[in-house]
Amino acid sequence: MSHSKTLSGLIIMMCVLCFSSSCNKDNSIKNSNQLAQWRGDNRDGIYHETELLDEWPESGPEKLWIYEGIGKGFAAPSILNDRIFVNGEIDSTSYLFAFAMDGKLLWKSPNGPEFMGEGFSATYPGSRSAPTVVNNLVYTTSGSGRIACFEASTGEEQWAVTISDLGGPDKYFGYSESPIVDKDKVYCFPGGQSNNNVALDRFTGEIVWSNKALQDTFSYCSPVIAKFPEKEFIVTHSRHHLYAYDPENGDVKGSYFIEHYQYDGEHCNSPLFSNGSIYFIGNEKEDGASRIDINSEGELNVVWKNPKIKNNFNGYVQVGDYLFTTVKGNWLKALNIETGLVKDSVKSATGSIIYADNKFYCYGMNGDLNLITYNDDHFEIKGEYKVNDGTGHHFAHPVINKGILYIRHGNALIAYKI
Fold it and tell me: Are 385 and 56 spatial neighbours (Cβ–Cβ below 8 Å)?
C-alpha cells in the first residue's frame, strides 16, 4: 500500500470517528433533558435530583450568590445547558435575562412593555411567566402578553406575537401563562372569542391553527400535557372550566364546569396530570381540591372534591399515594389521592412547594423556606431559613438544578447550595 493511500485511509478513519463521536453526542443530547420549563420537566413540581442535603444547618443552606437587578415580578427561572433564564423588568419594559451558572449576566433582551397594573392590580407589577427553553431557543411571555422566541446563546429575537394581535383582551392581573412547547408548536390561550386557543409554529411564530374552544374568558394558569400511549391532550383552565383539547387542532374533548367559580378566586394553579388523573386546587368555597380522571379520548370524570383544601397559586405535587399542598393558615397537608381526605399536616408557611430526592421544599409567602420530609405518613421539618434578600412579595416558585436551589424574590435571583 502506498504512503498516499495509507494517509487517505487514516483521514477517512478519523472523519468516521469524528462523525461517530458527533452522532453519539447528538444522540445523547436528544436523549437527555433538552427542555426546561415551568415547575420542572413535566410541569408537576418534581425535580429529579439526588444526593441533596437531608438536613440544613441551623443557619440554613449556604448562599452561593445573589444577583440584584432583574426588576419587579414573580417569574421563576428556567435552567438548561448551564444557562439560567428568567423574565424581569427594567423601567416598565419586560426583559429576558440570561445568566451563567455563577450568576454572571450574559445578556438581556427586551420583550416589549411589562405589566405594571392599574388600581389594585398595580400592587402586583412585573413579570409573571417562566421561560420555556428547547435546545437553543427560549420562548417567553411578558405580563402584557408579548410571546417571543429568542436564541439562547445570543439573546437575538427570532419572532414575536402579541395577545392583542390574536384578539385576546387585556387581563386585569396581566398575562401569566408560561409557554408550553410540544414538538413543533407553541400553545397559548389568548382568550378571545375567535382565537380562544391558538397553536403557533415554534420556529416562525405563524399561526398553525386557532380554535374558538369554549369561548370562555382567560384565566392565569399554565397548561400541562396529558400523555397516553396513543394520544396526548393539552389540559388547561379557562375562567369557568377545566378542559382538555386536541393539540392537533384545538378541539375540546372533555370539560368540567366550575359551578361555584368566584371572581376573586382567580385560577392561577396549573393542573397536575399523573397516571390518568388530573389534580387541581382552586380557591372556590364549595370546590377546593379536585381529582378528575381523564381517559384516552380526553373525557373527564370527577372522582372527588375536598372543599376544605384551597390553594390559589402556590402549586402542589403528587408523590406516591398523596397530593401535597400548602393551605391558608400556614399548613402543609397530605391528601390521599384515592379519597381526597387529609392524612397528615404540619405547620409550614403557606406558599409554593416543589419536591426532590424524597424531600419537600416550601417557600412561604412570608419568606420562610422549609425543608420537610414525609415518611410513614408523618411530616418532619428538616430545615428552616428566612429569605431576606430581594424585594416585594414572595410569590415565585423555587427551582432546583444540579444541587442548587434558586429563589427569585422580586429584584433578586438567589442561589443556595442544597
Answer: yes
CA 58 from chain centre, in angstroms, equals 30
DSSP 168: P
Specify burial of residue 26 (Cβ count, 10 A radius: 0-12, 13-18, 19+): exposed
The residues with which 46 forms a beta bridge, in sequence order, are 355
Burial 103-118 (b: 16+ CB within 10 A, else e): eeeebbbbbbebbbee
Give residue 14's pLDDT band: very low, low, confident or very high (50, 70, 90): very low
pLDDT tens digits, 264-286:
657 889 999 999 999 999 887 78
Q: How confident is the model at residue 23 (pLDDT cuts 50, 70, 90)?
A: very low
Task: Give the pLDDT of residue 26.
Answer: 36
CB burial readout 342-363, b (16+ within 10 A) else e: bbeebebbbbbbbbbbebbbbb
| Percentage of the chain lying above the pLDDT 70 cut | 91
* DSSP string covering 315-384: -EEEETTEEEEEETTTEEEEEETTT--EEEEEE--SEEEEEETTEEEEEETTSEEEEEEEETTEEEEEEE
C-alpha span between 323 and 292 (Å, rounded): 13
